[in-house]
Each structure stands twice: as structure tokens, then as C-alpha cells.
């Protein structure tokens, strides 16, 4: 056999010595001889030896051989090579390999990998590609031949996957075993190749990462190891890299699948390897013994960062012990030895640089999660570390450090360190991402970069740097107008362009010269997104229309001045002869008849401060001589020209400055225009919900305007005169927990800097849920003044307490709490600042001033009605608070008075009363597993109470004694000191004698009715019947459906489904039917159809297809098919339901009415309006005969008939039917029932057709509000309603 190899090997060795290229003929000759031998030899071992030897030798000189020639690629040699390698893949998995076989296995794989990496595709034929006759469409006519198509066959992937899933994650081999060598190089090749089906390998790689081998491979890394061994390369390097590089389409799914197990592994990995890695490189010792360890940690952090790119998985990093990973990343970034190392090295492959860059990128991606943002914001170490890391040479580290510094200090946007370099790092990243299909560069997403740039571009120096950069505006513009980009890239990019336009003429000229951007701006004029539409209008205003508008204004002024000059009297005024020269100084003019001209006032504000500015507007409306302009409807609907026109007319512009005002391009546009036009303005600082009620007093002739502030507002006291410059003086220092700032007068209004007098202490989570009806806000400058005993005494009265040290944050949280009564306890030192603000909040019930150190000055507090006292003893405060809670608990009891004559008319009865009555009945009929239910109640309550020793005793006592005593005994035992009578929920009384005691006081004697009271019975009988038969749980589920509480209904039915036996087919069918209904109501049509179909299949297994009990299921399936657009199928199901109902021995008229209604709806969708109207009216006649006049089902039919008339272009008739539907629903449904969404939407549509836009907007707004309450702001229904509302507002 050696003789056979002698000739080809001699040629190859000669090639190696001379470094010369082989001719194609020589290569073919070698390959032909090898194939001839392989096809004729009977000794398979010899054949494999020759093949492997040839591959080994060819691989050593592959760059000198024309392997990319199409004749070479198509040679039979490579077909044989591929099949032989597949055989070795199977052999490696199934049987033990000899040393020779292992070497052959490795040699073949090495040669294949090199061919695919370096010589994969045949060199193109220039003549064919550019010949019009052979290639008329300038396209590749034939699929190019490639090595990857020869080797990476379906059979190859099957064998490659099996060696991973059936061997490598089951059997443990030595680190340098040939299987690891081959599989890691093949997997690395799969990462590099583009034209293979990567999805085939996803499951095997997930299994590798989820296996113990991933974690164990980390544990085996030796401290003296400089590089990875093959086993580590496969598990630690190539498997994660495959997930990162080749699973972008499945990124969200895989991140959710892998993130939690990887975070769990992280604890062991970081605990074992991080301490050594934190030592940093010894710059004086070139020998590095930490190479493999630090590289392994870097790759693991890189994988975690990949998961952090998915918004849904970022929250996993803040759960339980995972929080420690965030702290460990901060430790990495703040380690002095690492900082020193990365500032001297810049190569990404350098161990320290790699680890720091991945760590800082991980934190960068995690700050998009709100809780993590606040966690890092409170960590001063990270800001200090970022300041040092900005000196690093690596672009990723610089980008991360600049961004974290800027984002974590959003309120100090003007204090960004080195804004020029910050801007350049952002442009560097955008440039490297913009052409990447994944839009990711070094673990950072383009949409995130633009989101952050939108914030920091408020820094004027960053604007100027981007404007002056040769490619800056062009790069961002490409992100905006690029059609391949998603909206989360295009929209912020366009807003950044607008912000950069404020840098001046240089920026504007560059923007004007980008034609694709201007085309995109024009397209966005009609965008459905109001904010995007306004941004486009604002850019157009900046680059073109503003100058035209100002020029036009100046021309008009010149014309006006010419008229004034023309009519001006020729006699000059001689002041020495004026009347007032002869009047004594103590003379008082009588100005009772003097007429003051109206003063035009414009209020410029940010949407976040709208509530405050609405109060200013409403207050100013009460002053006689003010003409006001304020965009009260929607901030982004204001056309820049409209705003400019209002500003031209304004004598005074009130600018309500705040941090959000500064960040808003809308507000900046207004402020810039006011500055250009030298409009007189009053600057004021709007802090959240601080009371800026300003008393503007009209002066005489010159309209002197004075603005006054309440004590809590940190702003400048301003005396402004029409057409004069404003002088400013700093406010006095206020008694708050932080520093007061003094601001010097500024000659230019636009440069006035007004800062907050308090340092904000942000809560970790500003939006919190309150499960009780009372909550205490405790504002104290130093929380150390409060001890546990004192807090425990208060908590025994009201469990939920929120503590604040900062007035701003307290006020901000007050705004968020809507439906809860708040008791405010405030320290004496902060009382005079917070009370004037808190007094105005409806949700603040009462205020208690407390100090346990000194006496309190009560004089000033008498002016505020909500202050219940000044206390220096906690016992006295507790007594007053307890009494107030008791009083409010009584006030919470709802009472409705219904005349006896109106008992059949539900107009005057709160629908909630009926539902509560039925709820009570159902609860009392439910059978309970007391031990389980009792434990569930305790488990529910414990986390909602910050347990004191007293609470713990109550819970323990409840568990032991509850079954021993009656519930009423438990209640009375809890309030022994009170003399009370207990009534059940929804108790009804007759009103007896009414006596007048005093002019303002009456005594009403109430007579308690019995269970058999005829009025109560008549009221509830019908609603009770509508809940159907069955046990209490069944009826409770139906009641939740009636109330529109579909989530609760779903929970009840799922619970019942788990509890019943599979043999109870009737109950199973019923529950699936109900689950189908609630799924449909929640918009999940596939789930609904699945439940309905399952219900039908169960029922048909024990009854005929025409059984009366199947009618509702046929009808329900028809409803889903109708919604899915399968109208013909839906009609068949509906008609089958009607056939069943009509054939019943005792037909149910209401079921028949529903059938007619459903059939009418299909004809309506098919645009067969006469047939639809006929069926709807059949349904209406039946319902009128058999239902109460205000039953919700009648409303449904009225709405349907209205829709048909609307489709027949008879909007007036349609509106009449819609109004009848709404009237019924208002009397029979809760105010936020989802059914009202459709009715209000229908009325809005009819009114729009009649061009009654104001009324249409009112109904559209109501539909939006109910949809948001019912489904949330991310639901498609709310988004549809919001979009329609915006369209209506544009038409008005």
C-alpha cells in the first residue's frame, strides 16, 4: 500500500518544499489514482488508511491547491470522502475505535472543515455571470456547487446529532478524546456556514447546555491551564456560540428556556472561578496562568448577555439569589487590578478585556429592566467604576461605561463626562450594527442603542458632535428611513434626528440633503402613530417651514407698522405740559372706569405635568382679562405652526419647566421659537403634583404680571412686564431634607437653569399594588427616628405602610394611588412643605403631624382641614387614627334607596347590588374542604401583611380555632370594645318612620326585611334563573361571566375540571363549553375552538348528534368559525342549532331567539343585509315577549340591528338602535363591562358618518377607557380603539 501512496505523496511533498501551486491536471491525477485504488481494493482498512493519509497531506498544503475549481469540487473523491466520514461518525458512536481509526476520524474531519471554511464555493465564471444571452436577468442561473452541499447532507446531520445526543451528553470521556476534537470543530464550522439548516442542531445543543457536562466542564478547569482542551471547547465555547450566532429567530423562545438553568449554573461557576479572575493581569509578568479560567467566565457572561437581550428574560436576573450576579458584575467592573489591565490592553481576545467588556455589556442590557435600573442607580460603585473604565482602549468597554454613566444619571444629562467621546462611541456602534442582519454588535442591539441615544442626545454637546461628524446624521437617518428596519429602530431614530436638528444650521443643512430621509418624513405625515406624525411635522417645520413662517410674520408686522405711521398724529407730545405734572404726590386716581386690554397668555408644558398645568389653566380662567391658549387635548396633536401662531399672539408665555420638559422635543421646539421671537415669558419649575397655583394679577396699561408660588415649589419669583426683559431673584431656602440651590439671574431666558431643591430617593418599584382599602404614607426626613415598636403600633391599625424620605417621591407615588384612602403621617420638619400639596389630593383622607422629640407649633396647621392633629406621643396618634379608620369603614357601606314603584324597573338599582346578592347565595351553597381552604387563606394573607408578633399569633390562632367557633364569634371577638350589630352583605330594609330632629338632622327608622320579602324575590328571581342549574361553583362561574370577570370564571372552571372524574362526561362537556366561552371573550379563538370541539366530542360519545343538550355547543362553535372568517361553516352550525331547538318537545323561546340572532350575524358578514335584518327582528320580537325590558340580551340585538342599518348607509336609524342598546346596558351592566366597548364604538362610528365629531369622540374615548380597564394597554382591542380615537381627533 505504501507503494500506492508513493507517487501522490511525492508530488505533495515537492509542493511543500517549493511552495508552488499544483496544476488542475496534477490534482485530478492524484484524486483519480486515489479513487481508482479505493474502488478496486478489497481491503477496507487499506482504503481508509490511504484516504486518511491523502487528506492529511492535502490539508497541510490546501492553500496551494486550486480546490475552488469546479472540476475539482465535482470530483468523485469528495463524494467518497463524505460517505466515509459519515461511516466513521456512526462507528464512533456505536463501537470502540482503534487508535488508527481515531486518527483517520480526526484527519478526515480536519480536511473537511478546512475545505468548507476556505474553499467552500467554486470560483464564479465571469463570462457567464456577465453575458446577457446566458444570464439575461443578471441572476445566478445555476445553484453553485459547494463542499458544504457535498458533506453536510441530511444523512450527515442525522449522524452528527446522534453522536451528540446519544453519546457526548451521556458518556464522559477524557478531555482530549478524539470525539471532542471532531465535534467541536464540526460545530464551529456549522456556526460559520450560512447555507445549512441550523435549526436541526438547536435541540441537541440545548440538551448539551442543560446537561451536567456544561457545569462539570467548568469545574474541571485547572488554575494552570492556559487554553481550553477539546472537551471544554465543545461545551463551554462552541455550544453557547451556536446559540448566540445561529438561533436569532428563536432567540426569545430559547432565552426563556435556557436563562433560568444558566443563571443557576452561574452561582457555582462564579463562586469557583471569579475570585481568581479578579486578580487582573500582572503587567510585569508576561506569564499568565489564568487564561482558561478567565476565558471560561467571559464566555459564560457572554451567554448570559445573550439572554439579557430578550426583554421577557431580564426579570429572571432580579429573582431571588440571581440578584447576586448583578452585584458580581459590578465587582468585576470595579476591581482595581482589572481596571488597570484593561486600560493597558485593547484586544477583545485579551482575557481581562474580554471579561470586562462582556460584564459591562450585560449590565448595559439589564438596565432596560426597571427594577435592575433602580438597583444600579442606587449603587455608587458602578458610576465610579464607569468613570475609570472610560479610559479603556476597547470600544465596547468605552461604550458601556459612557452609556451606564449617562443613563444612570438621567437628571444630570448636562454633566456627562466627555460628551464628545460618548457620541463617537454611539456612532461607532451604530455603524457596525446597521448592516448586520441581526442588528447586534458585541452583544448590543441597535434598538437599545437608539433608545439610550434618544435620552443622552438632550446634551447639547452630544447633539453638536453628531451634527459635526461626517457620517453622524447620515447613519441615524439611515436607521430612520431604512425599510428593512422595525419601528422600534425607525421611530427613535427619527426623534433623534429632530433632537440633533436643534444643534443649528449645520445639522439642518445636512438633514435637508438626505433625500430618502425627507421622503420618509413626508410619508410619516399620515402615520397612525400620533407621536411619529408630530415628529415628522416638527422636522419639516425645522428644516423649512419655520423660516417661511417667521418671514411672513415679519412682513405682516412691517405692514402694520406702516399703517400706524400713516395714522400717527403729527403733533409731538410735550411731557412738561402733561396733566400729572401739576398733581400732588398723595393724589389717588379713580380707575373705576378704566378699561384694561385683554392679556393673551400661552402655557407651554410637558405632557407629564399636564395635571398641574390644567390647574393653572383653570385658575387663570377665573381672571377676567386673560385670553388663554393651552393644548389641553393631546400634546402631540399640536401642529408646530399652530403653536407658533399662538405664541405670536401671546403677551406672556408661561413655561412650566421640569426634567421631562427639558427632554421633550415638543417643548424644546416651543422654547426655541419663543427665544427666536423674543417672546416675554415666565419660567417656573413644575415638580410632580407640587401646587403651582399662580395668582396672575393684571397691571395697568403695561399688563404687569406677578407670579406667586406655594412654599414647596423651588422656583424663581419673577416680576415680568410685557415687552421687557425679566429680572429674577433666587427663592429663600426651604426647610427640606436636602440642599437648596441658588440660581443667578440670566440675561437670556432660554438659558435659565432651575434645579430641584431635593435629591430624589427613588423607590425600587414605584408602581405597587395595594390589596387593602387603606394605606399609610409616612414621610420622615430620617427613617432612623422610627423604631420597630412605633411602626408596629401603627401597623396594628393599618397594615400597609410606605415610607418616604423625599417629598418629590412621596408626591409622585400619591399620584399613582387612585382607589385607596391614604393617611399621611409626616414629621414636623417636613410638614409645611408637603401639607399644601397633599391637601389637594382626593385620595389623601387625613394628615397627622408627628414628632417624638419636641413640642410642635400648631398655629400654621389650623389652615388645613385635613390635618387631624399634631402629636408627640404615638398612643395619641393611634387613638385618633383608629377612630378615623372605624368611621371610614362605616362610610364604605353602599346604600341605595329604591321606590317600591320602581322595583320592576332596574334603572335606580346599582347592578352591583344584584350581583352581590347572587354572589352571596352561591357562596353559601358551595361545599368546601375546610382544611385546604383555610390553609389557602392563610397562605394568601401572610405575604400581604408585614407580619408582627401579633399578626403571627392571629394566623396561628385562626388555624387552630376557626372550626371551633362560628365566623360571627370570630368577628365579635376581634372588636370586643365596639357595640355593633352585624348585617349580611346586600341586606334590604324597608324605610319606616322619618322624624326631623333639627333643621339639618333627620332620624330614619329602618325595618329589616326577611328572606321571603316579595320585593327582594321579584328583583333577584330572573337573574338567578339566568345562572342555570348546578352546584355553587358552577353558578359562581356563570356569575363571574355575567359580571365580565372572565379571568376569575376561567380559574373557577379550570379548578372544577381538575377535581371531577374523567368518567363524568356530562360535567366535563359542560366545563369545556364554559372554558370555550371565556376563552372567546378574552380573544383566544384557537383555545376557545379547542374547548368547544372537545365538549362536542365528549357529548357525542354518549348522545345523538341532535340531542337538545348539544344546541349551545353547535352554536358556540359556529361563533368561533364566524370570527375566524369561515362563514359558510359557521352558518351550518348555527342552522343545526336552530333545527335542534325548534324540534324540542317544549321549545325554549330564548334559545331560538339566540339562534336567529346568530344566523343574522352571518348574513350580515356576508353582506346579505335583508336576510340579516329579517333574522335579527325575529330574535327581537321573541326577546321582547320573554325578557325584562332592560335585559342585556336585548341590548345585543338592538346593536346588531343598528349595525345592519349602518351597513345599509342609514346611520340615523342605526343610531336610534345603538342608543336603545346603550340605555339598557347602562342599567344592567357594570360601568366597565367589556360589552360597552362595542356599543360605544358603534355609536362613535354612526356619529362620525353624520359628521357629529365631538359626540363621536366622547363615545370613542369611553370605548378606549373601558378596553384599557378590561384588557390592559397591550391588548389588540385597546390598540384598535385607541387608533380609531386618534383618527377621529384628526378629523375634528
UniProtKB/TrEMBL annotation:
GO BP annotations listed: signal transduction
TM region(s), chain numbering: none
Highest taxon, organism lineage: Eukaryota
TIR domain ranges (all copies): 601-687
Record has tRNA-binding as a keyword: no
TPR repeats: 1069-1102, 1111-1144, 1153-1186, 1195-1228
Residue ranges, compositional bias (Low complexity): 727-745
Record key words, sorted: Coiled coil, Repeat, TPR repeat
Gene3D superfamilies: Tetratricopeptide repeat domain (1.25.40.10), Toll/interleukin-1 receptor homology (TIR) domain (3.40.50.10140)
Annotated region described as Disordered, given as residue ranges: 725-751
Pfam families assigned to the protein according to its UniProt record, in alphabetical order: TIR_2, TPR_10, TPR_12
Cited InterPro entries: ARM-type_fold (IPR016024), TIR_dom (IPR000157), Toll_tir_struct_dom_sf (IPR035897), TPR-like_helical_dom_sf (IPR011990), TPR_rpt (IPR019734)
Coiled coil regions, renumbered to chain: 1243-1270
Name of the protein this chain belongs to: TIR domain-containing protein
Organism: Rotaria sordida
Organism taxonomic ancestry: Eukaryota, Metazoa, Spiralia, Gnathifera, Rotifera
Amino acid at each position: 500500500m505504501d507503494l500506492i501512496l508513493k507517487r501522490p505523496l511525492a508530488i505533495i511533498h515537492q509542493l511543500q518544499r517549493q511552495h508552488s501551486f499544483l496544476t488542475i491536471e496534477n490534482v485530478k491525477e492524484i484524486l483519480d489514482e486515489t479513487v481508482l485504488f479505493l474502488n478496486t481494493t478489497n481491503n477496507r482498512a487499506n482504503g481508509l488508511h490511504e484516504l486518511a493519509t491523502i487528506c492529511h497531506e492535502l490539508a497541510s498544503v490546501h492553500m496551494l491547491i486550486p480546490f475552488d475549481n469546479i472540476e475539482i469540487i465535482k470530483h468523485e473523491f469528495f463524494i467518497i470522502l463524505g460517505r466515509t466520514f459519515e461511516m466513521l461518525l456512526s462507528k464512533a458512536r456505536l463501537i470502540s475505535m482503534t487508535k488508527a481509526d481515531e486518527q483517520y476520524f480526526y484527519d478526515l474531519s480536519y480536511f473537511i472543515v478546512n475545505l468548507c471554511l476556505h474553499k467552500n464555493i467554486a470560483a464564479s465564471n465571469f463570462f457567464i455571470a456577465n453575458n446577457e444571452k446566458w444570464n439575461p436577468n443578471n441572476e445566478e442561473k445555476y445553484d453553485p456547487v459547494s463542499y458544504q452541499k457535498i458533506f453536510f447532507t441530511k444523512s450527515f446531520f442525522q449522524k452528527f446529532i446522534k453522536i451528540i445526543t446519544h453519546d457526548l451528553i451521556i458518556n464522559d470521556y477524557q478531555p482530549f478524546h478524539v470525539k471532542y476534537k471532531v465535534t467541536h470543530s464540526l460545530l464551529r464550522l456549522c456556526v460559520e456556514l450560512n447555507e445549512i439548516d441550523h435549526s436541526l442542531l438547536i435541540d441537541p445543543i440545548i440538551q448539551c447546555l442543560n446537561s451536567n457536562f456544561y457545569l462539570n466542564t467548568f469545574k474541571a478547569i485547572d488554575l494552570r491551564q492556559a487554553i481550553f482542551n477539546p472537551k471544554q471547547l465543545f461545551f463551554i465555547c462552541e455550544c453557547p456560540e451556536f446559540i448566540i450566532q445561529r438561533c436569532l429567530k428563536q432567540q426569545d423562545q430559547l432565552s426563556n428556556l435556557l436563562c433560568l438553568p444558566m443563571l443557576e449554573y452561574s452561582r457555582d461557576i462564579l463562586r469557583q472561578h471569579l475570585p481568581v479572575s479578579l486578580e487582573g493581569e500582572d503587567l510585569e509578568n508576561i506569564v499568565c496562568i489564568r487564561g482558561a479560567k478567565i476565558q471560561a467566565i467571559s464566555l459564560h457572561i457572554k451567554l448570559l448577555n445573550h439572554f439579557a437581550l430578550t426583554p421577557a428574560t431580564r426579570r429572571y436576573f432580579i429573582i431571588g439569589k440571581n440578584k447576586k450576579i448583578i452585584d458580581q458584575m459590578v465587582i468585576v467592573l470595579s476591581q482595581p487590578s482589572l481596571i488597570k489591565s484593561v486600560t493597558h490592553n485593547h484586544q477583545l481576545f485579551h482575557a481581562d478585556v474580554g471579561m470586562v467588556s462582556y460584564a459591562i455589556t450585560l449590565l448595559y442590557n439589564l438596565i432596560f429592566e426597571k427594577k435592575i435600573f433602580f438597583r444600579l442607580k442606587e449603587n455608587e460603585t458602578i458610576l465610579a467604576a464607569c468613570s475609570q473604565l472610560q479610559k479603556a482602549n476597547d470600544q465596547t468597554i468605552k461604550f458601556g461605561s459612557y452609556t451606564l454613566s449617562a443613563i444612570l444619571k438621567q437628571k444630570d444629562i448636562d454633566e456627562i463626562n466627555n460628551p464628545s467621546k460618548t457620541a463617537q462611541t454611539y456612532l461607532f456602534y451604530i455603524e457596525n450594527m446597521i448592516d448586520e442582519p441581526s442588528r447586534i454588535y458585541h452583544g448590543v442591539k441597535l434598538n437599545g442603542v437608539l433608545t439610550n441615544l434618544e435620552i443622552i442626545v438632550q446634551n447639547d454637546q452630544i447633539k453638536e458632535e453628531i451634527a459635526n461628524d461626517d457620517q453622524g446624521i447620515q447613519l441615524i437617518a439611515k436607521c430612520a428611513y431604512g425599510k428593512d428596519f422595525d419601528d422600534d429602530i425607525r421611530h427613535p431614530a427619527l426623534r433623534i434626528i429632530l433632537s440633533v436638528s436643534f444643534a443649528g444650521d449645520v445639522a439642518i443643512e445636512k438633514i435637508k440633503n438626505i433625500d430618502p430621509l425627507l421622503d420618509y418624513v413626508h410619508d410619516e405625515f399620515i402615520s397612525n402613530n400620533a407621536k411619529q406624525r408630530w415628529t415628522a411635522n416638527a422636522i419639516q417645520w425645522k428644516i423649512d417651514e419655520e423660516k417661511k413662517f417667521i418671514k411672513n410674520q415679519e412682513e405682516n408686522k412691517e405692514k402694520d407698522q406702516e399703517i400706524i405711521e400713516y395714522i400717527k398724529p403729527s403733533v409731538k407730545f410735550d411731557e412738561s405740559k402733561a396733566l400729572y405734572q401739576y398733581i400732588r404726590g398723595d393724589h389717588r386716581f379713580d380707575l373705576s372706569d378704566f378699561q384694561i386690554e385683554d392679556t393673551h397668555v400661552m402655557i407651554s408644558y410637558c405632557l407629564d405635568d399636564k395635571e398641574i398645568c390644567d390647574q393653572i389653566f383653570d385658575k387663570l380662567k377665573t381672571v377676567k382679562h386673560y385670553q388663554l391658549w393651552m393644548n389641553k387635548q393631546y400634546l402631540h396633536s399640536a401642529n408646530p405652526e399652530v403653536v407658533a401662531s399662538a405664541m405670536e399672539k401671546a403677551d406672556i408665555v408661561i413655561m412650566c419647566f421640569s426634567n421631562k420638559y427639558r427632554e421633550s422635543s415638543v417643548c424644546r421646539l416651543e422654547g426655541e421659537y419663543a427665544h427666536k421671537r423674543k417672546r416675554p415669558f415666565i419660567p417656573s419649575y413644575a415638580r410632580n403634583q407640587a401646587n403651582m397655583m399662580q395668582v396672575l394679577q393684571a397691571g395697568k396699561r403695561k399688563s404687569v404680571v406677578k407670579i406667586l408660588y406655594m412654599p414647596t415649589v423651588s422656583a424663581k419669583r419673577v416680576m415680568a412686564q410685557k415687552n421687557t426683559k425679566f429680572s429674577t431673584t433666587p427663592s429663600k431656602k426651604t426647610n427640606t431634607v436636602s440642599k437648596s440651590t441658588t440660581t443667578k439671574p440670566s440675561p437670556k431666558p432660554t438659558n435659565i437653569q432651575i434645579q430641584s431643591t431635593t435629591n430624589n430617593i427613588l423607590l425600587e418599584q414605584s408602581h405597587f399594588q395595594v390589596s387593602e382599602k387603606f394605606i399609610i404614607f409616612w414621610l420622615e426626613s430620617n427613617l432612623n427616628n422610627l423604631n420597630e415598636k412605633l411602626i408596629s403600633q401603627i401597623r396594628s391599625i393599618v397594615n400597609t405602610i410606605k415610607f418616604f424620605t423625599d417629598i418629590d417621591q412621596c408626591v409622585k407615588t400619591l399620584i399613582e394611588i387612585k382607589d385607596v384612602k391614604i393617611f399621611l403621617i409626616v414629621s414636623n420638619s417636613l410638614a409645611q412643605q408637603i401639607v399644601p400639596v397633599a391637601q389637594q389630593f382626593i385620595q389623601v383622607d387625613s394628615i397627622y403631624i408627628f414628632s417624638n422629640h419636641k413640642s410642635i407649633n400648631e398655629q400654621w396647621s389650623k389652615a388645613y382641614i385635613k390635618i387631624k392633629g399634631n402629636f408627640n406621643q404615638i398612643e395619641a396618634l393611634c387613638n385618633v387614627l383608629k377612630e378615623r379608620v372605624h368611621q371610614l369603614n362605616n362610610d364604605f357601606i353602599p346604600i341605595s334607596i329604591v321606590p317600591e314603584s320602581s322595583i320592576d324597573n332596574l334603572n335606580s338599582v346599582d347592578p352591583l347590588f344584584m350581583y352581590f346578592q347572587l354572589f352571596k347565595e352561591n357562596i353559601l351553597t358551595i361545599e368546601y374542604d375546610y382544611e385546604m381552604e383555610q390553609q389557602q387563606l392563610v397562605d394568601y394573607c401572610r405575604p400581604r401583611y408585614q407580619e408582627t408578633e401579633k399578626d403571627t399569633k392571629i394566623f396561628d390562632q385562626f388555624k387552630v380555632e376557626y372550626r371551633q367557633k362560628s365566623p360571627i364569634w370570630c368577628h365579635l371577638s376581634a372588636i370586643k370594645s365596639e357595640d355593633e350589630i352585624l348585617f349580611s352583605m346586600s341586606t334590604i330594609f324597608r324605610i319606616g318612620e322619618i322624624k326631623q330632629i333639627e333643621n339639618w338632622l333627620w332620624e330614619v327608622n329602618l325595618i329589616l326585611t326577611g328572606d321571603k320579602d316579595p320585593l327582594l324575590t321579584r328583583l333577584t328571581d330572573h337573574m338567578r334563573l339566568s345562572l342555570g342549574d348546578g352546584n355553587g361553583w358552577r353558578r359562581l362561574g356563570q356569575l363571574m361571566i355575567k359580571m365580565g370577570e372572565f379571568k376569575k370564571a376561567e380559574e373557577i372552571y379550570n379548578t372544577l375540571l381538575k377535581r371531577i372524574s374523567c368518567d363524568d362526561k356530562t360535567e366535563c362537556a359542560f366545563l369545556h363549553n364554559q372554558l370555550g366561552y371565556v376563552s372567546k371573550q378574552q380573544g383566544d379563538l384557537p383555545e376557545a375552538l379547542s374547548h368547544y370541539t372537545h365538549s362536542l366530542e365528549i357529548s357525542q360519545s354518549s348522545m345523538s348528534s341532535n340531542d337538545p343538550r348539544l344546541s349551545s355547543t353547535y352554536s358556540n362553535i359556529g361563533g368561533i368559525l364566524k370570527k375566524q372568517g369561515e362563514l359558510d361553516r359557521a352558518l351550518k352550525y348555527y342552522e343545526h342549532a336552530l333545527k335542534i331547538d325548534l324540534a324540542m318537545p317544549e321549545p325554549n323561546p330564548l334559545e331560538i331567539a339566540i339562534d336567529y340572532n346568530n344566523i343574522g350575524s352571518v348574513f350580515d358578514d356576508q353582506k346579505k343585509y335583508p336576510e340579516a335584518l329579517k333574522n335579527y327582528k325575529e330574535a327581537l320580537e321573541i326577546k321582547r315577549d320573554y325578557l325584562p325590558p332592560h335585559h342585556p340580551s336585548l341590548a345585543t340585538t338592538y346593536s346588531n340591528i343598528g349595525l345592519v342599518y349602518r351597513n345599509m348607509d342609514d346611520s340615523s336609524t342605526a343610531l336610534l338602535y345603538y342608543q336603545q342598546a346603550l340605555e339598557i346596558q347602562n342599567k344592567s351592566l357594570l360601568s366597565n363591562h367589556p360589552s360597552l366597548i362595542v356599543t360605544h364604538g358603534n355609536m362613535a362610528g354612526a356619529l362620525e358618518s353624520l359628521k357629529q365629531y365631538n359626540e363621536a369622540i366622547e363615545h370613542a374615548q369611553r370605548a378606549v377607557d373601558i378596553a384599557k380597564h378590561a384588557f390592559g394597554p397591550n391588548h389588540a382591542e385597546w390598540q384598535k380603539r385607541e387608533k380609531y380615537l386618534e383618527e377621529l381627533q384628526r378629523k375634528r
